[in-house]
Each structure stands twice: as structure tokens, then as C-alpha cells.
């Protein structure tokens, strides 16, 4: 039993707006006309495409294999025909394109052969590879590959299942916990064994009593210690590190994996995906997406990965006066540049923003150093310091103030009385620093290549020099051995001037070669015998003349 | 008196020996300043600075022969970093040495390539592959955009293509500063 809960610094309490979408049960979204499955499902790695345009694929068939340490596979969400593999816009603040596999569903929804995976019998490495090839990634938003998070299989004591869902508007995890608690707990049980953990703690914000009750019932049936804990609803208590801190009191430093501190955290939807993969052999091909805001039917939809947001929008019946669409929550999400973008494994919520609800950002005013941001920051940073340094492009200083500890939760911007888009500055600074690091790495690599090229050139020059010297010595030796037979005077002259002898020998060689060469003419075979005879006569005359006039 | 002299001489000898040893043991080969400057330079080896490579330019800066604003690929950021390192004032890029351009990589128009290998010999980082009378091609991730391969090409089949923005190299923009409405 957890004797007490811990707390984290700061946090905010925005209006939750969860009731709009939380009451309706999860509805399956119908098959769309076209699916665009992105080969890159997260920022870290893209899968290698293994299908070609025109191929017929079955539901659950692997269309992209995992590449790199953070790679995971992607699968066809339904049966159909691959129409194209090309660039397609995806849900990313840049609005840029990435490689997607476009699949036209055939409506039959035909599965590949599925088989459960006996993870208890298989060696641990195989089990992790199974999760990777089933395309299991964190479904809370960042889509971090789950097999990487499971660590080495030892050292993890507590497995935390994240049912926090602290962002306003989003209710997909809430509905999932209410409706599929058994599956989630079964998945948590598998993760517990793979992580080598001893107990499960599920953290759920206390504004979801129905989800807590349903999860408690599912946990009671489990044969391992599992506890459902209601945590206070303070944004961002559903953040991974914040939830770990609230439940266990452990603070994980930036850039370090949780398993080194004895805890690891997985989202509830990830746990369910693990259960579906292990127990039924179903790869991750669908997820629950909350569609809410200015729509007639707000609610949660079970959506195939690759379904366009446009198709979802017509399903939820978006009202005409919607200004823009936000992917993710209002705190951390971003406005979609394009509605054709497909749902990714990490897309949890689409908000149709009505005119009144999200008023245009007020003009940025100067920072008045009130310190409200520092009081709100859940990771104990000094957001105003970071802001000044990021704004003046003083990135080294920003890093010294632990810019990379920032989880971009948006609490500071939420409370800022000057309406400064603080997180935008941090994101700008972070991506600038990353770009510089990339440039530095590229420069170091080119320096190394340049130095190696110089080394190679000197080596080649040396090798050539030695080769030539050896050859010259050889020729000289040959001449010296020949000299006695050609006569005494010539030998004497050669001995005085070996260079001259070398030149004379080379000239003789060249002359012999010239004499041996027969002029070639492609048409000579097609000429009549008279013409050939004429040519032969001319050649003979030329030879005679040449012999007369040859100065040598 | 004598003992004091002996003690002082002894200390002097011991310390002198220690210093002498340290100067051999901890000897620094090369000029660390040149290395530091070289680390800032972009390593394109393009020669636009009028020195035959980044290292010679770094050496020239360290010797006080060259100014810090002669490197167009390093751009303004590079000049700033050099100014910081050397404690000098920032100055804009010297126009005589070129202008700052967005990063580009060389692209060979492969059907037009005659396989002369001149560009391969010109490339300072061995980023072009090919053989005599065979088509050549640029290994894009290795190309530094130095443009040294363009001049030797006898058929002018090499062009510089700006690097496309992808999800990997995309950057968040500087937040636009909205000017507050006048009261």
C-alpha cells in the first residue's frame, strides 16, 4: 500500500472540459477511403518500407520494418492495396511531408495469420523484439518505443501505469480505462514481467471516478500486487516524471532512463496494445482518439492509424464556424496546418476550436519579472531566465539554466500575465541548439575525412615514387646486363650517361610499337578488292618515302 | 646560517627538478589556440578565406595574420563564436571573401557526366564516388557544400542544390514578436 502521496512543485488548474467527450462510449470509426500510414511515427526513427505500390496487403501485415535502436515496425491497418509510397503531409507543427504508405482498403478487413506470443517461454530479447515488430510505442503522445523503455530486465521495482490524462479536453484514456480495464491490467501484468518489476501502481487523476472504479475491479482479479491510486488533478500530473514523483517520490534526472531509478512508466493505452499483441498477435494498428470541441458528436473514436483527420471531422460533424483544429491538448498541442494529415500512433486528441473558446493570442508584453512562471513550473526551472536567454539567442546560458529539463507543458505560458509564448521560445532555443550540435558533428566528421584524404594523398604519392624508382632501377639493371653484347664503345657511352641509354631504350621501344600498329578502318572489310589494292599501294609508297626521309 | 642556505638551495633544487620534469611530462604539442579556432570553423575546406583550408586559416588567425571575418560558410554565427573565443569585437563578414548562403549540396547531373574524375580529385572530403569513364555521384550526407567541384567540371554538370527542410532538420521559428496595439 502507498502510505502517502508526494507532490511536485507548481502546476496549474485549467478548465478541464472533459465532460463533453467523456460520456459517450468509444465508437469505432468506419473504414476510410484511403489510409496514409506514416513510416515515421515519432521524431526518433523511421521504418524501412517493405511493400511496393500495387501490392495487396492484409490487415496487420508489416509494411515497414524497424530500423535503428529506436525503430519500431509499422503495419497495414486493414486489408487492401498499396496505392503509392510517397510523401504526404503529417501531423507536425512544421506542416512538412514525410514518407507514407497509401493503402486503399478493400473493405474485407482480412487479417493476417495471428498467433499469441508466449513471452514466458521466449528469451527476454526475443520478447522485446516481438514488441518492436508489433510496432508498440508509447501512446501518450511522444510515441517512444516501449521495448527500449523496458530496460535490462532488472533494477525496476515499480511499474507505473499512467492513467493521469491531465490535459484538458482529452478523454481517450478515461474511456479506455472505463471500458477495457481488464485488457489494460493484463497488459500491465505482461509489462511487469518483462520489466522484472515487483508491483504495479496505476495513477489516475481523481476527477475520473468511473475509470478508477473499473480499474480497481480489474486490478483485484490480478495475481500480482497492483494498486490503483487516485492522484490530485493538477496539470501536469499525467506527465511521466510528475506522475512518478507523485506516486513514489522519485525524481528522475533529465536524459536518464527511468529504469536506472527503479521505476518505469507506461501509458494505459500502451499496456492495452501490449496485451493485444501478446495475447492475440495483433500489432498496433488502431488507437482511441478524442474528437471534441466545436462538434455535434464529441466523443472517442477507435481509429485506424493512418485515417485522415478530415475523415474524423466529418464523422464528428464539425460545426461550420470552427476556426482551426488543434492536435493534442490545448496546453501542449499545436494547430494543424492541414486536415489531410493522418492519425499517428501518438495522436490522442483533435480539438475543433470554436471562435470564442480559444481567443487569438493577446499581444506579447514585456516580462515584468513577477515570477508567476517560476511558481507554476513543475520541474523547478526559472522560466523567465530561460526566456531572456532564449530570446537573446544566448543558448549556452539557456542550457546552463537547464533548458533541456523543460517538458514544454505550457504552465508558464498559461500563467504569464504578459501573454509571452514562453514555450515557443524554449522550443526555438532547443531546436537551434540541436541544429548547432548537428552542424558541429558534421564539421567534425568532415575534418576527419579531410585529414584522411590528405594522409591518403601523401601515401599514394610516396607509393608512386617508390614504384617508379624500383622500375627505373630494374630497367637500368637490364640495360647493364645487355650492354656487353652490343659492343664496347656503346657500353662505355652508356656507363657515362645512364639517362641517355634509358631514353634511347624507350625510343626504340616506341618505334617498335609504332611499326607493329596496323591502321584500323571499320570500313576496310566492306571495300572492293580494287580499292583495297589501291590502299595497299599508297601504304607501300608512304612507307618507302618515310624510310627515305626519316631523320633517325 | 649555513643550514638556512642549504635548506634554501635544497628547496630550489627540488622545485627546479619538479618544474623541469613537469615541462617535459605535460608538454603541449601544437598550439591549443589553433585547435580551438579550427573547432569553430565549418570544415568545408573551401578556401574562400584565401587560405588552403580551415586549419591554415585557423593558424593564420592565431598568428594574427588573418581577420576573423573571412569565412562565408561559417557565417555570422561563426564570426560571433570566434570573436567570443578571441575576445575581439564582432565585425560583419568581409565581402571580399564571399557572402553567406543557405546551406547547399552539390548535385551531379548524371546523364551529362562524362566520367572525367576531375570533381573526385577536387573534393576535399571524398564525398564523390565514381571511376574514370563511369558516372559520378555525390554522397549527399558527406557533402559540405564547398563548391570546389564546380569549377573543374569540363561539362558543367554540377549544380548546388539548397538543402531541403525535412522533419529531421526542421527548426522552430523565432517566436514572432507582435507589436502591441497602440492605446
What is the CATH C level class of the domain at 32-97 in chain B, in words? Mainly Alpha
Instruction: Tell me the Rg of chain B in angstroms.
Output: 26 Å
Give the strand line-up of the largest sheet of chain A: 1-14-13-17-15-16
* Proportion in helices of chain B: 25-40%
C-alpha termini separation of chain B? 88 Å
Number of helical runs of chain B? 5
Q: Point out poorly predicted stretches of chain A.
A: 487-492
Side by side, the strands of the main sheet of chain B go 1-4
Instruction: State the separation between the terminal residues of chain A, measured CA to CA.
Output: 110 Å
C-alpha-based Rg of chain A, rounded = 37 Å
Percentage beta strand of chain A: 15-25%
The two chains with the largest interface, and their residue counts, are: A-B, 35 and 30 residues
Output the CATH topology of the domain at 32-97 in chain B. Answer: 3-methyladenine DNA Glycosylase II, Chain A, domain 3
The level of helicity of chain A is 40-55%
Textual characterization of the structure:
The complex is a heterodimer of chains A (552) and B (183). By secondary structure, chain A is α/β, with parallel strands linked by helices. Among the domains of chain A are: 19-32 and 118-353, NADH-ubiquinone oxidoreductase 51kDa subunit (Rossmann fold); 375-510, no CATH class. Helix content of chain A is 40%, strand content 15%. Chain A has 17 helices and 17 strands. Chain A has helices spanning 19-22, 124-133, 146-149, 172-179, 181-195, 209-220, 240-248, 268-280, 309-316, 372-376, 383-391, 395-400, 411-415, 422-486, 488-496, 498-516, 529-549, and strands at 27-28, 35-38, 48-49, 56-57, 62-65, 74-75, 80-89, 97-105, 158-163, 199-205, 226-231, 263-267, 286-293, 299-304, 324-327, 334-335, 349-353. Chain A has a six-stranded mixed beta sheet with strand order 1-14-13-17-15-16, with helices on both faces. A four-stranded antiparallel beta sheet of chain A has the order 2-8-7-4, with no helix packed on it. With 183 residues, chain B is mainly alpha-helical. Chain B is built from five helices and four strands; from the N terminus they run H-H-H-H-E-H-E-E-E. In chain B, strands 1-4 form a two-stranded antiparallel ribbon. A two-stranded antiparallel ribbon of chain B has the order 2-3. In chain B, helix 2 crosses helix 3. The longest helix of chain B is centred in the first third of the chain and has 24 residues, at 2-25. Chain B starts with a helix and ends in a 21-residue tail after the last strand. The relative contact order of chain B is 0.11. The chains are: A alpha/beta (552), B mainly alpha (183). Chain A binds chain B through residues 40, 43, 90, 92-94, 96, 98, 361, 363-365, 421, 424-425, 427-428, 430-432, 434-436, 438-439, 442-447, 449-450, 452-453, and chain B through 38, 41-45, 53-54, 77, 124-127, 142, 144, 165-167, 169-175, 177-181.
Amino acid at each position: 500500500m502507498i502510505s502517502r502521496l508526494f507532490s511536485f512543485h507548481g502546476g496549474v488548474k485549467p478548465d478541464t472540459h472533459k465532460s463533453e467527450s467523456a460520456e459517450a462510449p468509444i465508437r469505432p470509426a468506419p473504414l476510410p477511403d484511403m489510409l496514409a500510414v506514416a513510416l515515421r511515427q515519432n521524431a526518433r526513427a523511421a521504418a524501412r518500407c517493405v511493400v511496393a505500390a500495387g501490392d495487396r496487403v492484409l490487415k496487420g501485415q508489416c509494411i515497414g520494418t524497424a530500423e535503428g535502436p529506436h525503430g519500431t515496425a509499422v503495419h497495414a491497418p486493414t486489408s487492401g492495396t498499396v496505392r503509392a509510397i510517397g510523401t504526404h503531409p503529417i501531423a507536425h507543427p512544421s506542416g512538412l511531408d514525410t514518407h507514407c504508405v497509401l493503402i486503399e482498403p478493400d473493405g474485407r478487413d482480412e487479417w493476417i495469420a495471428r498467433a499469441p506470443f508466449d513471452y514466458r517461454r521466449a528469451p527476454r530479447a526475443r520478447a522485446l523484439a516481438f514488441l518492436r515488430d508489433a510496432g508498440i510505442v508509447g501512446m501518450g503522445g511522444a510515441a517512444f518505443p516501449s521495448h527500449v523503455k523496458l530496460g535490462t530486465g532488472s533494477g525496476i521495482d515499480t511499474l507505473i501505469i499512467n492513467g493521469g490524462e491531465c490535459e484538458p479536453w482529452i478523454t481517450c484514456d478515461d474511456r479506455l480505462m472505463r471500458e477495457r480495464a481488464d485488457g489494460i491490467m493484463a497488459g500491465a501484468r505482461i509489462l511487469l514481467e518483462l520489466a522484472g518489476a515487483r508491483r504495479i501502481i496505476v495513477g489516475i487523476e481523481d476527477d475520473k471516478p468511473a475509470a478508477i472504479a473499473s480499474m480497481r475491479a480489474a486490478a483485484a482479479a490480478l495475481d500480482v500486487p497492483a494498486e490503483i491510486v487516485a492522484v490530485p488533478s493538477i496539470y501536469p500530473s499525467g506527465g511521466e516524471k510528475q506522475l512518478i514523483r507523485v506516486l513514489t517520490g522519485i525524481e528522475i534526472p533529465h536524459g536518464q532512463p527511468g529504469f536506472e531509478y527503479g521505476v518505469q512508466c507506461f501509458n494505459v493505452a500502451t499496456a492495452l496494445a501490449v496485451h493485444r499483441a501478446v495475447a492475440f498477435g495483433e500489432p498496433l494498428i488502431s488507437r482511441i482518439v478524442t474528437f471534441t470541441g466545436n462538434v455535434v458528436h464529441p466523443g472517442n473514436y477507435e481509429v485506424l492509424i493512418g485515417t485522415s483527420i478530415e475523415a474524423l471531422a466529418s464523422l464528428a460533424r464539425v460545426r461550420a464556424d470552427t476556426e482551426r483544429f488543434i492536435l493534442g491538448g490545448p496546453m501542449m498541442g499545436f494547430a494543424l496546418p492541414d486536415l489531410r494529415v493522418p492519425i499517428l500512433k501518438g495522436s490522442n486528441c483533435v480539438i475543433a476550436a470554436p471562435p470564442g473558446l480559444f481567443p487569438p493570442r493577446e499581444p506579447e508584453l514585456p516580462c515584468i519579472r513577477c515570477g508567476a512562471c517560476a511558481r507554476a513550473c513543475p520541474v523547478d526551472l526559472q522560466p523567465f531566465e530561460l526566456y531572456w536567454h532564449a530570446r537573446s539567442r544566448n543558448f549556452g546560458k539557456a542550457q546552463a539554466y537547464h533548458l533541456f529539463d523543460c517538458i514544454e507543458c505550457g504552465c508558464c505560458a498559461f500563467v504569464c500575465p504578459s501573454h509571452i509564448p514562453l514555450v515557443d521560445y524554449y522550443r526555438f532555443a532547443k531546436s537551434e541548439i540541436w541544429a548547432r550540435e548537428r552542424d558541429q558533428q558534421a564539421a567534425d566528421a568532415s575534418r576527419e575525412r579531410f585529414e584522411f584524404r590528405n594522409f591518403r594523398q601523401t601515401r599514394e604519392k610516396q607509393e608512386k615514387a617508390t614504384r617508379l624508382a624500383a622500375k627505373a632501377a630494374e630497367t637500368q639493371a637490364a640495360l647493364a646486363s645487355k650492354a656487353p653484347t652490343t659492343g664496347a664503345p656503346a657500353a662505355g657511352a652508356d656507363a657515362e650517361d645512364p639517362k641517355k641509354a634509358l631514353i634511347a631504350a624507350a625510343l626504340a621501344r616506341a618505334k617498335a610499337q609504332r611499326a607493329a600498329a596496323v591502321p584500323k578502318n571499320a570500313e576496310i572489310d566492306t571495300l572492293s578488292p580494287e580499292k583495297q589494292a589501291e590502299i595497299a599501294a599508297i601504304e607501300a609508297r608512304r612507307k618507302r618515302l618515310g624510310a627515305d626521309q626519316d631523320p633517325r | 646560517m649555513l643550514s638556512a642556505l642549504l635548506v634554501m638551495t635544497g628547496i630550489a633544487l627540488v622545485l627546479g627538478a619538479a618544474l623541469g620534469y613537469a615541462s617535459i611530462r605535460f608538454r603541449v604539442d601544437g598550439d591549443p589556440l589553433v585547435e580551438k579556432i579550427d573547432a569553430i570553423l565549418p570544415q568545408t575546406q573551401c578556401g574562400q578565406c584565401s587560405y588552403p583550408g580551415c586549419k591554415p586559416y585557423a593558424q593564420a588567425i592565431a598568428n594574427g595574420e588573418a581577420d576573423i571575418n573571412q569565412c562565408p560558410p561559417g557565417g555570422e554565427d561563426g564570426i560571433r563564436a570566434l570573436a567570443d573565443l578571441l575576445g575581439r569585437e564582432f565585425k560583419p563578414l568581409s565581402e571580399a571573401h564571399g557572402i553567406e548562403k543557405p546551406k547547399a549540396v552539390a548535385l551531379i547531373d548524371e546523364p551529362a557526366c562524362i566520367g572525367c574524375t576531375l570533381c573526385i580529385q577536387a573534393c576535399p572530403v571524398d564525398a564523390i564516388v565514381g571511376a574514370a569513364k563511369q558516372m559520378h555521384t555525390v554522397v549527399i550526407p558527406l557533402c559540405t557544400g564547398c563548391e570546389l567541384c564546380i569549377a573543374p567540371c569540363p561539362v558543367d554538370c554540377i549544380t548546388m542544390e539548397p538543402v531541403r527542410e525535412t522533419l529531421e532538420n526542421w527548426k522552430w521559428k523565432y517566436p514572432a514578436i507582435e507589436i502591441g496595439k497602440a492605446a
